Amino acid sequence: MRSPWFNKLTVIFGPRPPLSWLLLCLISVLALITVLGSSSSGAFDSVTPIPVPDIYTNYRRLKEQAAVDYLELRSLFLLPSRQREIDLCGKERENHVPCYNVSANLLAGYKDGEEFDRHCELAREEEQCLIRPPKDYKIPLRWPAGRDVIWSGNVKITKDQFLSSGSMTKRLMLLEENQIAFHSEDGLIFDGVKDYSRQIAEMIGLGSDYEFLQAGVRTVLDIGCGFGSFGAHLVSLKVMPVCIAAYEATGSQVQLALERGLPAMIANFIARQLPYPSLSFDMVHCAQCGILWAQKDGMLLLEVDRVLKPGGYFVLTSPTSKSYGSSSSMKKRNMLTPIDELTQDICWSLLAQQDETFIWQKTMDANCYTSRKQGAIPLCKEGHETQSYYRPLVSCISGTTIKRWIPIQNRSSSVQLSSAELEPDDYFEDLQIWRIALKNYWSLLTPLIFSDHPKRPGDEDPVPPFNMVRNVMDMNAHYGGLNAAFLEERKSVWVMNVVPVRAPNTLPLILEQGFAGVLHDWCEPFPTYPRTYDMLHANGLLSHLASERCSMRDVFLEMDRILRPEGWVVLSDKVGTIEMARMLATQVRWEARVIDLQNGSDQRLLVCQKPFLRK
């Protein structure tokens, strides 16, 4: 609906006033501001005021107000073409995940499993629309209740699919009328997930799985994580699991894990490297994950070696059930013989074997690679360790010359800072900034910010509960300071720390802190299902993307796709960029409000909430 002011302008100047009149209006506004000596900005709310010199403040505010007035005049001038809300998608796209189109991949010539891989380069120009939730979608239960019970209408798994699944699935889940209940005491492996976890701990020489952290196991890459029961148990031990699994049109492991509030993303062991740097995880776990590790000349196992830290563990539970008799034992032995040869060649040792579970340990000594027999798998050439963003798999051993080669058993509790990769002062300054910022952020996560409430946001309003959100994505994570601040404040969240591919690569430091993280190009869709995050945060990302080839409108559509209904977006950036973002937020139908930090900088916050568009 057009404002009365806009209607008057239309009557006087016509539907598209000439540029000279716009410039005259702008000059008039500036003159009026100067005469009145305005020192306030009615378009902004204020939080955490910090006093600054009056002259400097007034000059800066005049300059900022001029920029805002120009943008508002420009937005009014372009209102009919730019402010139109984006249409909703049809029902067929309720669970749409871009870049995973098997038919298009086959037509392009991909085969041998690569047709199931991620190929954003083939993504055709799609209709720009907002993906709406399914008819029976409900807001997830808050953590920790949401870990054990999810709404069946929120995930793409039907009652018929559940009833036709094997006994293992039935032991993991109980399907009721409109809920799926997970029983972590039963089912991941034969004697229950707790027994299985304790078995792994004992096999690596620990008294119980409560000693994982003491043994240096803080992060676990869980390949083909089922419905996340092992990951849920690891979270209770304060270990960070990251589930990865292939894209599945229905019954997705990743979608179910994220719905339960567990870290997960779509990723494949097919032909390309995972979007993690070398030496990223303390343990890699594969329980009935269906991957034949000796295939492709061992390159799949070499990728495990690349992301595994020195002294780390590879846990493999074979896809066969408990075997009895010589025939089954011989079959198992034949299956493992190629793996045995590969593991010896890459300096792994078979630490233990019990029932169907095998555990190898990666060498702690980088000199092991120089003492191998002739003809062994070669080391990757120097300079190979660049960003691992979906590069082709390699047939060489990575990570042996990195300064981060520190066995997990020798790692101190403090963060290891490598001066070759970052400035320690920057890291600690970043952490301090986010300690302060998070207190302001948390007070803003309330619908009162969008009402005509008389109090300032966060002043006297009740602070949202610690479990207000669970799945958080920091789209430009820097050093992971926001994640660290969440932990210090004891919020019940986990954070997917995303490092843009063309930003400084701080991901090794983020992972070294025991956090979840990944490299990503924001010109492409993120590898996850719709409605999987409660909160999206980005500091400086929009300015960073301004010089990239991607469309800001596409970025907002992708954010809307992965954000849950009633989820939150907090963007921090320069005033001009934030005003542009506010217009885009209006187009994707978010409630949006700009917050002036009142700290003497040109930074602004844009706080948005996605509405629940019911059918």
Automatic annotation (TrEMBL):
Q: Which GO terms describe its cellular component?
A: cytoplasm; endomembrane system; membrane
- Any transmembrane segments, and where? none
The UniProt similarity line reads:
Belongs to the methyltransferase superfamily.
- Look up keyword tRNA-binding and say if it applies: no
Q: Which organism is it from?
A: Trema orientale
Species lineage, top-down? Answer: Eukaryota, Viridiplantae, Streptophyta, Embryophyta, Tracheophyta
What is the name of the protein in this document? Methyltransferase
Pfam families from the xrefs?
Answer: Methyltransf_29
Give one GO biological process term.
methylation
